[in-house]
Specification:
Elements: H1 6-16, E1 19-21, E2 33-35, H2 37-56, E3 61-63, E4 69-70, H3 72-78, H4 80-83, E5 85-90, E6 97-99, E7 122-125, E8 128-131, E9 141-144, H5 149-154, H6 156-163, E10 169-178, E11 193-203, H7 208-225, E12 233-237, E13 249-257, E14 260-271, H8 273-282, E15 288-290, E16 295-297, E17 300-307, H9 308-319, E18 320-325, E19 328-333, E20 344-348, H10 356-366, E21 372-374, H11 380-389, E22 394-398, H12 402-405, E23 407-412, E24 418-422, H13 426-434
Parallel strand pairs: 3-10, 20-21, 20-22
Antiparallel strand pairs: 1-2, 4-9, 5-6, 5-7, 8-9, 10-11, 11-17, 12-13, 13-14, 14-17, 15-16, 18-19, 22-23, 23-24
This protein binds adenosine-5'-triphosphate.
Adenosine-5'-triphosphate binds next to strand 11, strand 14, strand 17 and helix 9.
Length: about 425
């Protein structure tokens, strides 16, 4: 069940070390966040799960890690310098700023309630501009990329030449993007610095509708496989008037956030817009020559573009649950094992020196395979609850019998089942249960 309040998740993230407000000791820094010891593990797992499905398990997609700093030429060709804008309005009454297209009622200020108080909308470019080198000014201007996608388009020829791929094939990238959002908010849903997971899939023009459909379905299935409940996920096709100028079709994968349906990912049929623009502006040929048919063409591109940080939040909301165990309320994150920060926690029943060597031995068996936590302080019940709250699927308890029978207890986060297994078969047993 998705948590019905953001507060549960925001508190949990702070209390357990998933996500902290950035620069907190200086009073925080406007909608930026730092990922703590558990958050960094989970975010890596989200990105890794995406990479596994988009690159590792396919033979038609290759990876890329392109630069974040980029020259204006790229953004001129892509259209971002011209068009990557949001309509900004100010309330004359309270001076708050809003994105016009995100207001429920464009005539009423959501902050102070004033009517007809907004200024004319101004187009505000979302790209962060900075300067490369010691001299500020024209010629030294660079931009922080507002999306990872352009890295794939500008490297199209390099990758075609070096990877031995031919359409249909894709280029995938995961990394930071930056947008000077007018109204960041809703925790990590909309931030100015965030991570994206994007893939550009280049296809023969005649196949683009078919591949667009394919990727819509693939991408929806990815979220479901990793534990988003079916009734909290939908595909929404854009209406004709919502489409970007280059797109012939776009669908959003949407999640039921506490404030309603909102976007996790966009899947767009971008046609040949990007390669054609970069060919025009750079003077390079960005096309494919099919030796078999003797045909030369500019591939069309299908783009599934997701946000890693936003998606992590959706996984957290979906996984959050409260139940009762032995008459006590329990908070539990029912995360898919692939996403859980720790897969296994090794817990010696007591901190006594007699148990430490065998508990350390168990840890050393499991640690090379999976990310593990090791915790030997406090009562065992409290330690189980802590692991439940951070989503650890399996706990391994080492007790005094272990010294005699060389067996340990595996406890399951969701079923609460406890089974005794010999240390010798522990890794196999954990592997079966985690099914990763
Ligand atoms: P929106 O309409 O919400 O501003 P968008 O349609 O401009 O988003 P895209 O350019 O399609 O977003 O980016 C792809 C994905 O990147 C989004 O679906 C989202 O998951 C993520 N994303 C975009 N902007 C942000 C942001 N400011 N903070 C966090 N994630 C973001």
């Amino acid at each position: 069940m998705p948590a019905d309040s953001m507060e549960d998740i925001v508190n949990l993230c702070k209390r357990r070390g998933f996500i902290f407000p950035s620069a907190e000791i200086y009073g925080g820094f406007r909608s930026t966040y730092d990922y703590g010891p558990l958050g960094v593990l989970m975010l890596r797992n989200v990105k890794e799960a995406w990479w596994r499905s988009m690159v590792q398990l396919r033979d038609d997609v290759v990876g890329l890690d392109a630069a974040i700093l980029s020259p204006p030429a790229i953004w001129e060709a892509s259209g971002h310098l011209q068009n990557f804008t949001d309509p900004l309005v100010d309330c004359r009454s309270c001076n708050e700023r809003f994105r016009l297209d995100k207001l429920d009622d464009p005539n009423v200020c959501p902050n102070c309630g004033a009517k007809e108080s907004f200024t004319e909308a101004r187009q505000f470019n979302l790209m962060f501009k900075t300067y490369a080198g010691p001299v500020e000014g024209a010629g030294a201007e660079v931009y922080l990329r507002p999306e990872t996608a352009q890295g794939m388009f500008v490297n199209f020829a390099n990758i075609l030449q070096t990877s031995r791929k031919k359409p249909p094939f894709g280029i995938a990238q995961v990394g930071k993007s930056f947008r000077n959002e007018i109204t960041p908010g809703n925790f990590v849903f909309r931030t100015r610095e965030f991570e994206q997971m994007e893939m550009e899939f280049f296809v023969p023009p005649a196949e683009s509708a078919e591949w667009y459909d394919y990727w819509r379905n693939e991408r929806k299935a990815w979220y479901l496989d990793l534990g988003i409940p079916p009734d909290a996920l939908r595909l929404r096709d854009h209406d004709a008037d919502e489409l970007s100028h280059y797109s012939s079709a776009t669908s959003d994968v949407e999640f039921m956030f506490p404030w309603g349906w909102d976007e996790l990912e966009g899947i767009a049929n971008r046609g040949d817009y990007d390669l054609t623009q970069h060919a025009k502006f750079s003077g390079e040929k960005l096309e494919y020559f099919d030796q078999a048919s003797g045909e030369r063409y500019v591939p069309h591109c299908i783009e599934p573009a997701a946000g890693a940080t936003r998606t992590m939040m959706a996984f957290l909301l979906s996984a959050f649950d409260e139940d009762e165990v032995n008459g006590e309320k329990r908070s539990v994150l029912r995360l898919h094992p692939r996403l859980a920060p720790y897969k296994v926690a090794v817990l010696p029943l007591s901190k006594k020196d007699t148990l430490t060597p065998v508990a350390r031995e168990v840890l050393s068996l499991v640690q090379p395979r999976w990310m593990c936590d090791y915790d030997e302080t406090q009562a065992i019940g409290r330690r189980y609850r802590r692991q439940d709250e951070i989503g650890t699927p399996l706990c391994v308890t080492v007790d005094f019998d272990t010294l005699e029978d060389r067996a340990v207890t595996i406890r399951d986060r969701d079923s609460l089942e406890q089974v005794r297994v010999p240390i010798d078969s522990l890794v196999d047993e954990l592997a079966t249960r985690l099914a990763l």
